Amino acid sequence: MKSAFVSSFAHSAAGRLLLSTAAFITLAAAFFLLIGRSPWEMLSLLAQAAVGDGFALTESLVRATPILLCALATALPARLGLISVGAEGQLYFGALVGTGFVLSATAVAGPLQLPSMLLAGMAGGAAWALVPTLLRTRLQINETISTLLINYVAALLVTWVVYGPWKNPASQGWPATAEFPENARLATYFDSRVHAGLWIGMAIAVVAHMILTRTRWGLGLDVLRSNPRAGVLAGLRFDRHALAVMLLGGALAGLAGIAETSTVQGRLQASFSNGAGFSGFLVAWLARNHCLRIVPMAFLVGALLAAGDGMQMLAQVPSSVTLVAQGLLFVAVLGTNGMLDRGAR
Amino acid sequence: MHLSLRHISKRFGATLANDDVSLDIPPGRVLALLGENGAGKSTLMKILYGMIRPDTGDVVIDGRPVRLPSPRAAMDLGIGMVFQRFSLIPALTVRENLALANPRTPWIVGSGARRVPGLLDRLRDIAPDVDPDARVSTLPVGQIQQVELAKVLNLETRLLILDEPSAVLSDAEAERLWSLVREIAARGIGVVLITHKLADVRACADDVAVMRRGKLVGRAEAADTDAPALLRMLVGDDTVATVSAEPVRRNALPRIWIRDVSADGPSGTIRDIDLRIAPGEVLGIAGVAGNGQDTLADACAGVTALRQGEVTVDGETLFAPRLEPRNHGRVAYLPEQPIRNAVGPDLSLAVNLSLRCLRSLPWMVDRKQMAKTAADLMERFDVRPPEPGRRAETLSGGNLQKLVAARELSGSPALVVACYPTMGLDVTASAAMYARLFAMAREGCAVLWISEDLDDLLRYAHRIAVLFRGRIAGVCDAGPASRTRIGAWMTGAEAFA
Known about the structure:
The complex is a heterodimer of chains A (345) and B (497).
Chain A: H1 2-11, H2 13-34, H3 39-51, H4 54-78, H5 87-104, H6 113-139, H7 143-163, H8 197-214, H9 216-226, H10 228-233, H11 238-265, H12 276-286, H13 291-315, H14 321-344
Helix pairs in contact in A: 1-2, 2-3, 2-14, 3-4, 3-13, 4-8, 4-11, 4-12, 4-13, 5-6, 5-7, 5-11, 5-12, 6-7, 6-11, 8-9, 8-13, 12-13, 13-14
Chain B: E1 3-12, E2 15-25, E3 30-34, H1 41-48, E4 56-61, E5 64-66, H2 71-76, E6 79-82, H3 94-101, H4 121-126, H5 141-154, E7 159-163, H6 171-186, E8 190-195, H7 198-204, E9 207-212, E10 215-221, H8 227-235, E11 256-265, E12 268-277, E13 282-286, H9 293-301, E14 308-313, E15 316-319, E16 331-334, H10 338-341, H11 349-353, H12 367-380, H13 397-408, E17 415-419, H14 427-442, E18 446-450, H15 454-460, E19 463-468, E20 471-477, H16 483-491
Parallel strand pairs in B: 3-8, 3-9, 6-7, 7-8, 13-18, 13-19, 16-17, 17-18
Antiparallel strand pairs in B: 1-2, 1-4, 4-5, 9-10, 11-12, 11-14, 14-15, 19-20
């Protein structure tokens, strides 16, 4: 009886979180020992750098925002069984299209400029998702490979425009576009860089969760993912659903890109994403594609990454320590869940 | 090797799957372990194969108790098992699958495992038609089973357990299997045949042991028993439902016209199929597995696109080439291997039961209503356990079959396409399944019934068409007199003469 209670607790959401956290702390401590530092000191410095004061906290939120949107962009196709690694490229292309819109369409000014820029960014992200989707539905080309490879094309396109045609002549050689006008920036809060993209992302997470779990459409995704042949019996078409989830996912990643570019950085620059698309992929997997669980996971990973700079100063270690920590987090969560699921079988 | 199970008990939750079972398995004899679905025979054999540990009791080999912590340990002791649900790897070829499981396979096997000596000998014995370089995913279910058998026979087995081996074999294939099993036993190997078919006992067994509700209720030499006595032990009383189809009213207009249809499917093609089914008629499709049955069924159910021809219902075209294959609820479909072809394995029973009406559900799905509808359906069709929230993959084969029947036969279709609908069902459940199919026919439905059980086809169908190499080799009225003609068509002896 007692062991049954322990086992059912371990399999509950809270139990999984507790065990994963314990595994992460163990792994991280081992890593810090390995590099010759005191684990306790380093872990507390890490926590301090991530959420220690108001500035650290808001910077963590800023970092979490694009990761949150990119995680949703990964989770949506995953509900159909499609493993998209394309959020990174969609984010870049969304930023590119959104920026291009602002640079060219000077006619759209005033209150319309912001929403139309966001829509352009979303359209860009969706367009970048379209190619791998068509390759998959028409030619059965694996979407994981094509989304991954096409990422680099998008990132290099951005590099090209900021070094070439869109380079701001006034920036004295710095490879970036002109600054975004005030009208084309999202609202910011707390006297920090935290912007409305965070609320938008959280709202989208809630809405997406409702749609996926409560509606006929979400049920159809479940059926097609579980068994495409059963989907045919239900009169569902895989191709249409694939197009919908991939384009919606692309739009969310595109939104992340244009929000980050316009509001946080203020101009389009090369390599601006800091791997938010890939971190989003990790977050989606950590949250097992559950849209609500993505929110805290995105914050956790965002905080870890944001702590990198602080760690450099506080502990005199390279900021890449936090990248190692992110990897350890991934191993801890997936390893714990994997072992629990294996035991359950 | 003389093996005994002593006082084995195993409990799963509320059910006592094995209740103090003691069973002797002598070498060189074929023991049929007979019982209905859920009688506990599979559990008992899984204990013997090291997959399940018993709560109490011992496994004793040649007088010494042994520990069986895993199938590996059982294999090392010379215990081999062929499963009802196949364990081959679909993406690999037959040869590669055999090489994987063969302990004598060398480290370097060559391309496609073509260099392993003696690998195919057993397969050649039991299934000379199987192409060793075909991928398992492209084989029909009958042939997959044969490969599975060959795989286990390749191990140096001293006790062979066969779980429902005849369920998917045609008469001729079963004959071959039985003679092979006899041959194996003659070499001093013990064989346990898990089955619920009385015919298997007559065909092959020396001894028969009967299980009911977890208990061993009888054991006898096969020659000393007769069918009624066994049946009494099996079901516990004398009342076994008998069913029969009503004579059909042959109208001028067919309810269903499968008109000049050709189609290509993953496991075979069909060419120039022309069949008319009257309202209320049960048309049986006989034939050895792999002659296009799956493709015919898929084409008639709108799952596979037609290449040529059309399928009409009351004169209205339902499926045709370049017409989006879409089932408008006019065709009920019970495909073979429901876990692969008809359900979402990790979805709940409630969702699986509502698959057919998914598109007509309200936009916001009412899960409570869905579970309630599912519970009603499951009670009507005796799906156990009746828990709407349970995942489909946790159901036994027989209950999955009933689950799909509950979904497909609860509407008002014009055509029922049923592939091996009683596969995995015991005597009582089979009778219930037939009763439902014929009830559909009585209401004016056309029934296309694909089976490899010629006895059942001859007994219950109105007419029988034989598929051979993707074409109709012949059609005749069902009746005992047709048996030899059908046999000739099935083997191609009279091919298109």
